[in-house]
Amino acid sequence: MSYAFKDFHWTRHIPIKNYFLPKTLSEALNILAEYQGRALVVAGGTDVLPQLRRREIDAEALVDITHLPDLKSIEERGERIALGALVTHASITSSPLVREKAKLLADGAGYLGSPQIRNIATVAGNLVSGQPAADTSTPLLALDASVTIASKDGERIVPLTKFFLDTGKTILDCRREILTRIEFNALKEHHGCCYLRLSQRKALALPILVCGVLVKVDKKRRVIEEAAVALGPVAPIPFRAIRVEEALRGSPISKEIIEAVGTIAIEECNPRDSLLRGSSLYRKEMAKVFVKRGLQKALAQVGFPVT
Amino acid sequence: MAEKSDKKKKVKVVTKEKEDLQQLMAAPIGLSVVGQSLDRTDAFLKVSGKLSFGADYPEEGFLHGKILRSPFPHALIKSIHVEKAKQLPGVVAVLTAKDIPGRNGFGAILPDQPVICGDKVRFVGDGVALVAAESERIAEEALERIEVDYEPLPPVFDPIEALKEDAPKIHEKGNLLSYNKLRKGDIEKGFAAAEVVLERTYQVPILEHVYLEPDIAMAIPQSDGTMLVEGPMQAPFTVRRNLSAVLGIPINKVRVRQIHMGGGFGGKEDSPIDIGCRAAVLANHTGRPVRLALEREEVTLQTSKRHPMVMKVKIGAKKDGKLVAFEGVIYDEQGAYAGLGPVIPPAGGSHIHSMIMMPGPYEIPNVKVDAYLSYTNHPYGGAMRGFGAPQVHIAHEQAMDELAEILGMNPIDIRQKNAFKQGSVTATSQVLDQSVGLLDTLDSCAKAFDWDRRYRETGYLDKERTKRRGVGIGMGWYRTSIGTSSDGCGANVYVHEDGSVLLFTGITEMGQGAFTVLPQICAEELGVRLEDVRVVQPDTDIVPESGPTVGSRSTTLMGNAIVLAARQVKEAIFEMASEMLAVPMEQLEAKDRKIYDQKHPNQSVLFREVVAKCMGKGKRLIGQGWWAPPMASLDPETGQGNPYFVYTYSTHMAEVVVDVETGEVEITDYVAAFDIGKAINPRTVEGQIEGGVAMGIGYALMEEVVLKEGYIQNMNLQNYLIPTSLDIPDIKPIILEVENKYGPYGAKGIGEMPNIPATPAVLNAIANACGGRVRSLPADPETVYWAIKEKGGPPKH
Questions:
Q1: pLDDT (tens digit per residue) in B395-415
Q2: What are the residues of chain A with a beta carbon less than 8 Å away from any beta carbon of chain B?
Q3: Do B644 and B596 contact (CB within 8 A), yes or no?
Q4: Facing residues of B595 across strands?
Q5: Domain assignment of residue B236, given as a range
């Protein structure tokens, strides 16, 4: 039983020595390089500042990227939608484009925290924090998102399915790199989608379970052409339930298949017992219920109510 | 009532406390200030953000105090080294147990909590050293430099385990802090006569108050050796008593001054003693003002909590639902220190209150309750809106529903059959001879809620059979006093030459509306307007003793003291007005800043003119009132007596929708009816009802201090959940007024009552909706889900 001093003592004071407001991406990357891992990128700050205050992380300097140009746009680019790194949850929930063509992301972003937090917390930050319960991760996973990561060595584009490594850990090094852009599929008419969330109260609560579902149907043949099902926090990282998706692909729309994949979903989950947010067993049971309900809701949207 | 009031209207001016209480307190007619939903006196300042709380005060000139805390739930302190901390520039003092000038112990009832622990620590967060430094940052750094060697001891975290012989001893006197019993009738005969017997165990967790404003204390040494302590607090006189002992100075050298308070809910009865004493010790040592402000996590870690309990209930009834016997056992967990748990004779302290309330507001001829209060290595239990009553209501109200189910009775019928009415005899053999409106609340609540129809129509809402609707009832009662000799209340009323009035009381405003309701009573008595009366912030140097602001007692007890004080002044004023108008005194009436002849209402003189004249002639315009309720009694062996002089009664009804696949609960409708004697300010009463119900819903559905091996897992508000506005339905409040002959205008208390039956009403509704009975709180989605499974799955239809 080892408990650190910091577990029982709190400070208002955040011990950083420097705070930078770079005007360009290369300036920001240079500062990070100069500090050799001792500086940290901050945008909305809703995750970073509490962590600094609780001394869960430490940094000598913060590199505030909110003054970087061209990172606040939400744009449609062909079949994809692109978000700049500074797009907040509030702007996602109110964006007509996202509401029309990626409703599940707008819904997910609307659940995060409180209005005050949604007004400053960025979607990019939500991903970078790497929490399995993040409200935009599962919708973006379902939407086949990819992220652009800038470093001194240049840019790389990584699919979101390869982005998360472990709880609180991603392939991005936020002391050297900056996530600059998020891209994901724009949905079309034959897509049904939804975001479902289970929590202990209706607002401002970390979820027990989140589920992003996307289906594409062949209306003539009454067949599910494609399905994407993403789940969190029922494993160390948010993930796509691949075996559920495989079972759905090409399957005729029926009550039976929806019940059957719920059971597969249970097998794909590996949640921990949490004293605060439910036992492993309960969350597995809920994964089944939510995958079923998510599919029902998404299918109903495209004209196939299954009950 | 009208006849009596007519008599009353012939203003009988009373200066002697010995006057007949009934006559004194009878309600006059034609009230102009009392009974009105006037705007709260603090509303504008609060909503505009202009009101300064402690954290808004300038910090210049203050040293910053910090507490070094124990990282172990139970350990011996082998040594403490503070030298490295002292060497840090900006550190002014680092204190350990040996530096306490007086008694190294504080507590609202028993002073068993060390100001600074000397030889051992008893919970995670116990204070082992105090630091004062020029800045908060330096103080924090100093804490890290203090070296403490601990020898961990085996801890105990369960109130029943703690009573076993081989349990680790937390205090020298052992772990049983208090054992109380209640014996009425013949319990064996009672159960022998019963045709149905129900036995159940219910369990409730530790709760945090979550007052919005974290605790703060400022200790400012005065040049004459007096110690001034300022802060938001519910019990300034209790703080003063502790400061005097800890500093080793007489009470008249301690001054405690109240500042605006951002919520208390009972929690700021204990915690200001704790941080007040610690700030004062630092201020005393350094000779400089010290500010001690807690962060949210520190509030959760360090301050008092609602007592967790294991409650065993056995109820015997006849087939027609008439109760014949009740047996209860309470294992009440006090935590590391005595807090507000132990008995203050005859009927004070939360533990004995739980025992008294446990059988519920029902007539039961044979009752036996055994109540054990144990020390454990958890945070300590104090007062929280209901003071031991919410817990036992959760037990008896669920048991009543479970019994009704066995008997095949409608839950309101079994209550109708057994509920207190005028003349009923309680479990302590107290005869309820007046102001008993419980059945009125049941009737009006059932009518407004449309109980009979809704109870019949519970069932699934959707064809997929996932959402099921149900209804639940909770009944309750609550005292209007604390049941000890500290119930006496003093008030001073000063009328100034311009007709403006100062009201001095020791009752504190914590958001409940005391600073609106108390001056309303004063204004009514004097015949002035609410805005003419200013309430002075309690300051132990200048306001009379009033006891603590707890027990739903302020409006009634302090209200009476204010009436008495105001009538003393009124006597002088009427004498003068009688001369001025050439009208006999008993023919005069005071209203809306005028004094007039009742027979010729055009004949009047302005209040301020009479007052100015009184002043000119050297008449007394200072009133001092004192009122204490009829003395409480309770036999320590049998628990029989009259513990509290009057009770508020209530019935709640809730409708919920349960998602039977996930266990999620949504409260879709709510009606709550109260007999409060008289609503001095109906809108403020409604505010109390809505806030209290919301708090009771939180207890039912989500609140719990989660502990693992003595360590709190949810110290901040990200993880300690209370309901948001989205979780609370529209609440329909119903106010009934069954006159209390011992209350000002007939008033009884309302502060705590609304919170109490809310929790079981919701739990009963959940059980009605889905079949799952949650006997160990909270009824969060997972708990409800397993309760449904335990019942064999959701209902078929």
A1: 999 999 999 999 999 999 999
A2: 1, 3, 5, 7-13, 198, 200-206, 208, 275-276, 278-279, 282, 285-286, 289, 307
A3: no
A4: B590, B605
A5: 58-153+212-302
